[in-house]
Amino acid sequence: MHSTRRASSHLRLIPVLGLLAALLLPLGMTLAPRATAATATAAPAADPVRIMPLGDSITGSPGCWRAVLWNRLVNSGYPDIDFVGTLPPQGCGQAHDGDNEGHGGELVTNVADQNLLPGRLAATRPDIVVMHFGTNDVWSSIAPDRILAAYTKLVTQMRASNPDMRILVAQLIPMNPSSCAACAQRVVDFNARIPDWARGTGTDRSPVTVVDQWTGFSTATDTYDGVHPNASGDAKIAARWFPALAAVLDAGVPQDPGGPGDPGEDPAACTARFRAVSSWQGGYQGEVTVTNTSAAAVPGWSATVVPAGGARLTQAWNGTLTTAADGTATVTNAAWNGALAPGASATFGFVATAPATAGAPAATVTCTAKTPAA
């Protein structure tokens, strides 16, 4: 839905002023001079904020939580919003902006592998993406690592479309279909991975916010088939999206980012994600995956690793290791894995020593992408 603003009330004001002048002038009273065009013209109103609901049948078939969310936003003072998507409304029994990108039966891994999202982004140009995606992948027993890799690729494509994209990602609602006894636990296992993924993927310019749609949602009372929400489920989903989305709208969303290469776009950007591979008394093996999140190829990268609990990196492979006195480690790409196309990743491994009291392996990781030579 595209917001329109009517000027009819402003136009009706002119004859009223003329009548008022005719009544007052015979009494010896005068009206103040009309404001000049420069002072009377209001600043142009901002375009509506474009919000894409992205996912599968839980979002789009019919996905009536979108209707509940839309009306709550409008009734709470957010009128200048536009839900966008290449799919039309599908009913739901209440007036709302029903455009969406919830394709029934889709797997997020297929959308990533087949590069389906860029065309949909180009057609709708969202400022915010609200994503509940992966239920079909979990049902199909696809590994969490592969689903999260698809998430990362989609986020990269979102930022190529809009470097300032705001991204809200759901921890999936529970699933307990009669034909999949293992699905309930698979959702739990996958949801547990999402917060760490988001921390490694979000940036100051394009933050990723995790919204917990799992807690308090019951497949027995909030779905009609163990998977798809009923009216009670729609209300719960909308209630979880609302505060997160309202916070983004309150903070303000940059608009009209321009095309690739326009001033202000990050020429080189990346994210880094840590994973513990194995651990033992006194140490562990870890790995870090660096992903190019910019819209252009980068010629190289470096990653900073700050291990928790007093651990220190002692060796690394697939990169060159340097360690500061405080234990902060920097790993620079090897000659063969520095160049990364948009969305491409490189992984390096390392071994760290750790005190017996260090606890589970953990590290804070960041990365810097080299800027291509002019």
UniProtKB/TrEMBL annotation:
<dbReference type="InterPro" id="IPR013830">
    <property type="entry name" value="SGNH_hydro"/>
</dbReference>
<feature type="domain" description="CBM2">
    <location>
        <begin position="263"/>
        <end position="370"/>
    </location>
</feature>
<dbReference type="InterPro" id="IPR036514">
    <property type="entry name" value="SGNH_hydro_sf"/>
</dbReference>
<dbReference type="InterPro" id="IPR008965">
    <property type="entry name" value="CBM2/CBM3_carb-bd_dom_sf"/>
</dbReference>
<dbReference type="InterPro" id="IPR051532">
    <property type="entry name" value="Ester_Hydrolysis_Enzymes"/>
</dbReference>
<dbReference type="Pfam" id="PF00553">
    <property type="entry name" value="CBM_2"/>
</dbReference>
<dbReference type="InterPro" id="IPR012291">
    <property type="entry name" value="CBM2_carb-bd_dom_sf"/>
</dbReference>
<dbReference type="Pfam" id="PF13472">
    <property type="entry name" value="Lipase_GDSL_2"/>
</dbReference>
<dbReference type="InterPro" id="IPR001919">
    <property type="entry name" value="CBD2"/>
</dbReference>
<protein>
    <recommendedName>
        <fullName>CBM2 domain-containing protein</fullName>
    </recommendedName>
</protein>
<feature type="signal peptide">
    <location>
        <begin position="1"/>
        <end position="37"/>
    </location>
</feature>
<keyword id="KW-0119">Carbohydrate metabolism</keyword>
<keyword id="KW-0732">Signal</keyword>
<keyword id="KW-0624">Polysaccharide degradation</keyword>
